[in-house]
Here is the input.
Amino acid sequence: MVTTAPPQQKRLTVQVNCLAADTTTIRSLDWDRDRFDIEFGLQNGTTYNSFIVKGDRTALIDTSHAKFRDLYLQTLKGQIDPQTIDYIVISHTEPDHSGLVRDVLELAPEATVVGAKVAIAFLEDLVHRPFHRLVVKSGDTLDLGQGHILEFINAPNLHWPDTIFTYDHKTGVLFTCDAFGMHFCSDAVYDENLEIISPDFRFYYECLMAPNARSVLAAIKRMQALPGVQMIATGHGPLLQYNVAELIDRYQRWSQEKTSNEALVALFYISDYGYSDRLSQAISHGIVKTSVAVEMMDLRSADAQEATELVSRSKAVILGLPPTSGNGAGEIQTILGTILAAVTGKQSVGLFESYGGNDEPIDPLVSRFQELGATQAFKPIRIKDTPSEATYQACEEAGTDLGQTLNQAGKVKQLKALDADLEKALGRISSGLYIITAKKGELSSAMLASWVAQASFQPLGFTVAVAKDRAIESLMQVGDPFVLNILEEGKHLPLMKHFLKRFPPGADRFAGIRIRPGVNGSPLLADALAYLECEVTSRMEVSDHWIVYCTVQDGKVSDPDGVTAVHHRKLGNYY
Ligand code: FEO
Here is the structure.
């Protein structure tokens, strides 16, 4: 069954599917959503998946985003009489899953809300009405009858401290909410096309799960103790039925890689409905791009001993400053005091505001860390207005800068380890010189590139190798447009010099450069020899780079006699 909103609005549709015995999903398909929380530039929309499990008693697992209120409630009523809902399981209280809990409770006031302790506490703020509740933790079960015994698993930090997974012993379906999800909207209910969903699955992991890699491993360990997971019913994107083992294995492998990195950054934030969560995700995404590990800890639910232990293991500490007043402010300030006492002068410290206004004493803290001798990880990030895409980009770039600094020592050691003859021989590979420019929404970026090679005739295509820690990498996801500007021998030095500069986070890369917009919106450099307007078609991951394959839509040479600038190197361990 498909119910569609009026055509003048963005496309919102609802899809219903029976996924296992007595188990139905209501998938809210948000086809055009192009931003999600943090710096996700969504190419493929997203979905919010809700589930009904009917034994002798009925459980509703998660709801939907408030924008689907009418469509979702109408669809729910088409499936069951809401008054027969006995339990509403809350996997995670973020509004994309719990945005309609209040509405469902209006229809089913006697239902019992089931969730982790911290989820129930969050929900009280969200629902503003009394409700029956059942706090659950790992190993607890709820018998719905007819063999549907629901077992709960705590999965803190995936993606908030409140997350639980729910496993149905009759069907082998594991409901995981954000974990194993992806922002991918299509009519396909399941993951039958692994190739198509893989880039989104990976990108989502990098943005949302990589900063919590230890928590991912802990959750997988608990999952492995279950009798057998036949299907993963995620909260976003297709349900995983065909590639369950493979996709769990990917999460495990990626998380093991993340947790094996030597350098670790501790990031303390506040999970709520404000900006702290989103800003911290952007910073952490920037850090993990450099292969430095991040562990995030929520100040609201942090344990003093765990926080101290995390600080002691970390090379850098980032603090999203909490408000000094309001609900729970006293406890949060106590934890903050513990963290401050644990930081030493050998660590780097980064501070960012979460709410703006004068409620966050950022300046006294900056002075305090200076007195301690701690290095500044990045300039304090001050939020005075609602953060824009540019704010999130600046946060990501601040994280990347920090990660690159922490990595520096290790990289030099690695490069020195190369065999001298080999590095000279490798250095004989020469290449052209190019500037890649990209614009997506209000964000733009540029990068000097030399590892570029034509790769196909039909369609016309080439590859470019982009280091994983490049800021522009976020704007070169599959489907993104960009421009390859080809530099001219003899005229290339000013442009090269400009784009080789180290730009501070959020800086305009094009200040003082002559540009005009291309057909695809990305900047064309007026002083380049030629340009190609391109679109990213696929990406291949190779250790420290992404090999980005692109097809070409348009191009022009400004000087028919001009020659491409060539880069000859002496050694193969540098660009
Ligand atoms: Fe999909 Fe963290 O909410």
